[in-house]
Amino acid sequence: NSDLILYVNLELVNKKSDRRYVIKEMLGQGTFGQVAKCWDVETNTYVAVKVIKNQPAFYQQAIMEVSLLSMLNEKFDPDDQHNIVRMLDFFLYQNHLCIAFEMLGHNLYELLKRNSLRGLQLKYVQTFSRQILDALVVMKNAGIIHCDLKPENILITPNVKTAAGVKVIDFGSACMEGKTIYSYIQSRYYRSPEVLLGYPYTTAIDMWSFGCIVAELYIGLPLFPGASEYDVLCRMIEILGGQPPDDLLREAKNTARFFKHVGSIYRSNEAQNAPVSAYRILTGEEVEARESKKPKVGRWYFPRGRLDRLIFTYPWKNLNGENLPETEKTDCLALVDFLRGLVEFDPNKRWSP
Ligand code: ATP
Ligand code: MG
Ligand code: MG
Q1: Is the whole model's pTM more than 0.90, yes or no?
Q2: I want to staple 347 with a disulfide (CB 3.0 to 4.6 A). Which of 7, 43, 204, 263 is the partner?
Q3: 154 burial type by CB count under 10 A (0-12 exposed, 13-18 middle, 19+ buried)
């Protein structure tokens, strides 16, 4: 990988900008820079060019994006069969690192918004899930953790007649498994328990985010839309009806920010069958006292309630969950079972792609 990074840097030095891309409109912006729809005068096609902010930290991370994506594209998915965005070019322009990608369509968050956040039909949830999983298998085989899987980073593939399709984009936060550097990663709603708690992480964190995305595609709203990390954790505990396992809590660096060690007597009164734990989640007041500031707990707007209830009563078309037709009931049960494997607190028990 360090060879790759060296190669990318050398390529950049050797390339001179040749006014190949003509900016047509802005497509979006993120933390790292802006993305523009451009006309490629060499191939006569539209491409999406990500212009990285010209600050060293962003530059370094974008070099990583180029390196990991070229490895994924060329070595692990040479025939473009696994729903990972294709990188077409990269160059320096006025001190900005720029990356050209194939032009894709709207992202899944925009799709949900256009659908009034009511969620997609199960058949689309299934199609998209299968395709994202296909990408995750390739990433796992390559030992790459995406670290920022969320609806904004999954794009619809345009014009493929009637067949709906998606691709995973934005490897700007990605890293190699076993060479993890950063502890503050993933977007909050999609942040895995091990990252929240400060525990060594693997490709399993992408599977957590993936589970959050699948649920969101179906119900139309984020599963754990916490206003703070503490709020996210509270929502996980409420929705999943349990808490992270004790051995994770014992070894994680940030446990004391969220949990109180109460010895070996604590049993959540919510779940009668939950195993006895040595930890309980802090109350809002305790968090406030500890941080001597108001906790960003936020409103508990929906979705609220247990996972199965969320799936059976959302989207709103299923509002009267008890009266679902039998086939849809079976589908919902299967979806809850699937989600249980993904939004599993224990990274070792969580399903792999
Ligand atoms: P983040 O804040 O998630 O880290 P970022 O700065 O890394 O974002 P990207 O996620 O790569 O940037 O791109 C930002 C947005 O631009 C995307 O969410 C998407 O809407 C749009 N976009 C990116 N790549 C493409 C593409 N190939 N085709 C069409 N639109 C794109
Ligand atoms: Mg992004
Ligand atoms: Mg990014």
Answers
A1: yes
A2: 204
A3: buried
